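> call design_seq(struct)
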């Protein structure tokens, strides 16, 4: 997640078939909910987002949404839907208390335990 992000506007134009990203604008000064001054594009947000996206397909922007990457728009949309779903699950779980974050070793153990989950004895793994 990118902290200390300011109000950012992202513009995407599309005709139902193709879409074009028109860069983002950083709204640095507002008065009575009206933009007084904009800085476009937002270099600070771009720099932080690039760092957050290293080795990943998505990142959250504190109070400003997310960035999702894919080979095409369909994959980027699928990733953004998955991230939204995971965020909702995290938010719901956080309503009952602080979540327990598993260590790498604990995650390895969980993955090992679930390796054969749902299979009958002797049933081979299909891929």
């Amino acid at each position: 997640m990118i902290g200390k992000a300011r109000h950012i506007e992202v513009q995407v134009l599309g005709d139902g078939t193709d879409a074009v990203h028109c860069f983002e604008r950083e709204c640095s000064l507002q008065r009575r909910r009206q933009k007084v001054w904009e800085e476009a594009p937002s270099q600070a947000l771009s720099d932080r987002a690039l760092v957050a996206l290293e080795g990943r397909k998505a990142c959250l922007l504190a109070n400003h949404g997310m960035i999702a990457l894919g080979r095409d728009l369909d994959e980027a949309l699928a990733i953004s839907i998955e991230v939204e779903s995971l965020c909702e699950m995290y938010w719901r779980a956080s309503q009952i208390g602080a979540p327990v974050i598993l260590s790498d070793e604990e995650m390895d153990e969980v993955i090992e335990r679930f390796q054969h989950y749902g299979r009958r004895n002797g049933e081979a793994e299909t891929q």
